[in-house]
Amino acid sequence: MISNDHVKQWMNLQPVTLSKEDTLPETLVLFSEITDKELPVVEDGHLLGVVTLQDCVAHLDEGKVSAIMKTDYNAVSHDFSLNDKKTSERPLYVLHEKNGALEGVVGHEEMIAYYEYVREQEKDARQTIEWLKLGFDTAYEGVAIVDEKGIIQLFNEAYSRYVGVSKEEALGRPAADVIENSRLPAVLKTGVPERSQPHRLQGQELVVHRLPIWKDGRVIGAVGILVYEGISEIRQVLQRMERLQTIDKQSDKQMSREPTAQGPIHFDDIIGESPGISKIKRIGRKASKAKATVLITGESGVGKEPFARAIHEDGNRTNGPFVAVNCAAIPENLLESELFGYVQGAFTGTRNNGKPGKVELASGGTLFLDEIGDMPLTTQAKILRVLQEKEVDRVGGTNPIPVDFRLIAATNKDLKKQMEEDKFREDLFYRLHVIPLHIPPLRDRKQDIPLIIADRLPKLSEENETQETTIEKEVLERMFQYDWPGNVRELLNVLEQMFHLCEDDHIRLEDLPDGFSEHNQVSESLSEWQERKQKQEERFERKQIEKVLGEVDGNKSKAAKRLGISRATLYNKLSRFS
């Protein structure tokens, strides 16, 4: 990517030029129309020399440009930095590196635009720094940031108040010397965040976050944040939350819910802060408030069912049951009776009184059809009828039963391709595809790996009644290099395996499963992922700017106004796209 201070980003691609045969009076007319006091003499696209206004006036009787042309000029390549430009008022002539052709000129007007851009960038930077300083010191929570060696680089006023050490005294010192019982050095070593942990500081019980700072696949520092001031503040938060839910609602919810192996899941329980997963959680929260059908897609193991449960729990049917059916796990000859139920005598050896199906059981709540791409075509037709008529016929029955449920479907298959192959009904697809949610694979959100591990490891220790297990940051670095074809499910499986097989409650590199690092698909590193996402965002922004420029016939001032940015900012963005 070309730097924003390179002449290529600012040069005039269609400068005013002279030929050797131009007369000096004609040249004077051209000088009257521009701000520069020097003009290039060009032949066949190549720079022959320059003519200055002073020489033109002094030698007006010489006749032609060729008589007073000079070969003393400022020639530069297209990667020349304007930061290196001397104070000379003479223009810069940008020549092609290989054939020496004149590519453009950076004159007086171009330099004015560049200096305007620099001033705006400096102004924005100063304002941003000022806001960051104010926000950092105004924050109620104490915040301390250390480098990879554990040396304090930033320390706000709130933390200063907690530890009784001024910012000036704290900066440049090891965190362990300033913060009592500090575990920031441990987080630097493991690379695993420690969220909502109890911490005693100056005799006071606190709740803290300790978060590693990852860059290019390695830990370069850590952040310590003091969140709550002891048990009393936590209790106040819990009391506020309890006011939002009445005891009656909670008891009704327990009575009406069909027993399940796991408790309620909310969106806050879905671990991940990457852009992709954050976006899907935002859409999911909106979807939970709607009545429309939701189609969740994604590879096996990405966590489609937790999203379905969260939509149910955060929706207006939360008091009703959540009934899940895995369409791929039930034999085809049993799927219809499982879904729609059957009446007495429909099959030999069945219950005398018949049995309600999952669709009936979901009435008043949510029906989750997992792996719907594996559903037979005949069953698809019957599901479509249930959705259209809002009633279900039990197998062997003649009396339709009214049902009222919210449908959430999920699949790891490409349903559009299934339709092309006549394996999935088009009318059912469009009935399902009202609110689509595509959950990204783990390889596209690797910065969530430390968060998932930090959430799961303590739970494993609690479930197995063992001392809390820690993990080496080298293990996480190796995990960033792995493709995770099994997604989050595979990560949790690998983590549990290492948990049970590690020595001394500490997971090391040698505890990784055999062949883990030799997987046949080595994925991109975290830095490569971030670079790819940035390029995607830049491509979108570039299309928007090009569209506006086309609408205003290339007028950058009008384009900047329409985009709501300054002309210098527009130059900056255009330079990034070059």
Automatic annotation (TrEMBL):
It comes from the Bacteria. One of its GO terms (biological process) is regulation of DNA-templated transcription. This is Sigma 54-interacting transcriptional regulator. InterPro entries: AAA+_ATPase (IPR003593), AAA_lid_NorR (IPR058031), CBS_dom (IPR000644), CBS_dom_sf (IPR046342), Homeodomain-like_sf (IPR009057), HTH_Fis (IPR002197), P-loop_NTPase (IPR027417), PAS (IPR000014). SMART domains: AAA, CBS, PAS. Signal peptide: none annotated. It holds the Pfam family AAA_lid_14. Residues 11-66 form the CBS domain. GO terms for molecular function: ATP binding; sequence-specific DNA binding. Residues 121-173 form the PAS domain. Keywords: ATP-binding, CBS domain, Coiled coil, DNA-binding, Nucleotide-binding, Transcription, Transcription regulation. Residues 270-500 form the Sigma-54 factor interaction domain. Residues 519-546 form a coiled coil. PROSITE patterns: CBS (PS51371), PAS (PS50112), SIGMA54_INTERACT_1 (PS00675), SIGMA54_INTERACT_2 (PS00676), SIGMA54_INTERACT_3 (PS00688), SIGMA54_INTERACT_4 (PS50045).
